[in-house]
Design goal:
This protein is of the alpha+beta class. It has two domains: 119 residues, no CATH class; 132 residues, no CATH class. 34% of the residues lie in helices and 23% in strands. The protein has a seven-stranded antiparallel β-sheet, with no helix packed on it. Strands 9-8-10-11-12 form a five-stranded mixed β-sheet, with helices on both faces. Helix 6 links the parallel strand 8 and strand 9. The longest helix is centred in the first third of the chain and has 28 residues. It starts with a helix and ends in a 5-residue tail after the last helix. This is Plasminogen-binding protein PgbA N-terminal domain-containing protein. It comes from Helicobacter macacae MIT 99-5501. Keywords: Signal. It holds the Pfam family PGBA_N.
């Protein structure tokens, strides 16, 4: 009642000022919360999910590599090589993994700053050389045999990649697996990235146990992704969330992820499938290093395909 009486005693312009100040404060608070939320989001995820088709510029048969415009793709990304037979027919003949991004020979150099500034004054619509360099960067990718989308009942492709064929990136990147230490961290990731379609971790751990494995090694992880046509692997390590390419196991993106509240972890990672020991001597002697969750997956993140 007292608050109501005080408001009625105030002049109309005072009430309007207070209302405006309150609305402004709420708007500022919402903006700060949104900015904080964006800081804790993966920056390159949208680009990784976007499918890009890039024509091959050249093929080096000695090094078994191809070169093409980078178009914003990054080292570690895997894609499909499509052989173009004619305007109506094409097929996947191999895969490619980016191993290097080369800058253009016309790359921006600090030595040319004065000359560039003079040129820009004379022609203000001329594009910044830094932008030209980034747009004309070239990617070098290693050619690999098909492992993802492989059809054992169809004949293996015999065509070799040639200039003019295409590399398609992001084709499988709408699907991902999550490796997380607990249900809480697992659910947090699923809720934070609604644009991703996360396959249940039970599928991957089931594949792992079916192969009589406990600790997930690089080859098994890549094979599990290939079986389910998954492109990305979300991996929780100590205070970090990383997105790995499922085939190269190279980190493509990362963001800070608080794991300080994580107590007991689940091995080899969170799932509803429990490991059933056969009771054999072999099973008893089998290493279970992933029970030390953070130590194990920190090592996997650091070493990638070379992790033992």
């Amino acid at each position: 009642m007292s608050t109501t009486k005080n408001l009625t005693k105030q002049k109309p312009y005072q009430v309007r000022i207070q209302t405006f100040a309150l609305a402004f404060a709420l708007l500022l608070l919402l903006s700060l919360q949104q900015a904080h939320s964006e800081q804790n989001q993966l920056k390159n995820l949208y680009k990784l999910q976007h499918t890009t088709k890039i024509a091959i510029s050249s093929v080096d048969t000695k090094s078994n590599t191809i070169e093409f415009p980078a178009m914003g793709r990054v080292v570690g990304e895997s894609g499909f090589i499509w052989h173009i037979y004619d305007e109506n027919y094409a097929s996947i003949i191999a895969t490619a993994t980016i191993i290097e991004i080369k800058s253009s020979q016309n790359e921006y150099s600090p030595k040319n700053t004065t000359q560039e500034k003079t040129s820009q004054k004379a022609n203000p619509q001329k594009q910044n050389p830094k932008d030209n360099a980034s747009q004309s960067a070239k990617a070098i990718a290693r050619i690999n045999p098909i492992s993802v989308l492989e059809q054992k009942y169809l004949p293996s492709p015999t065509n070799k990649p040639v200039a003019g064929d295409e590399v398609h990136f992001g084709t499988l990147n709408s699907l991902a697996f999550i490796i997380a230490p607990t249900l809480e961290t697992y659910d947090s990731i699923r809720a934070s990235y609604p644009s991703m379609q996360f396959l249940n971790s039970d599928l991957m751990v089931g594949y792992l146990f079916d192969k009589s494995k406990f600790d997930p090694k690089p080859k098994v992880l890549s094979n599990a992704c290939a079986v389910y046509s998954v492109g990305l692997l979300f991996l929780v390590t100590r205070d970090r969330l990383s997105v790995l390419d499922c085939q190269s196991l190279v980190e493509l993106d990362s963001v800070a992820f608080d794991t300080s509240a994580v107590g007991q972890t689940i091995a080899p990672f969170f799932s509803r499938v429990q490991y059933a020991s056969s009771g054999s001597l072999d099973s008893a002697l089998k290493r279970k290093n992933s029970k030390q969750y953070f130590e194990y997956y920190d090592g996997l993140l650091k070493e990638g395909k070379n992790f033992k």
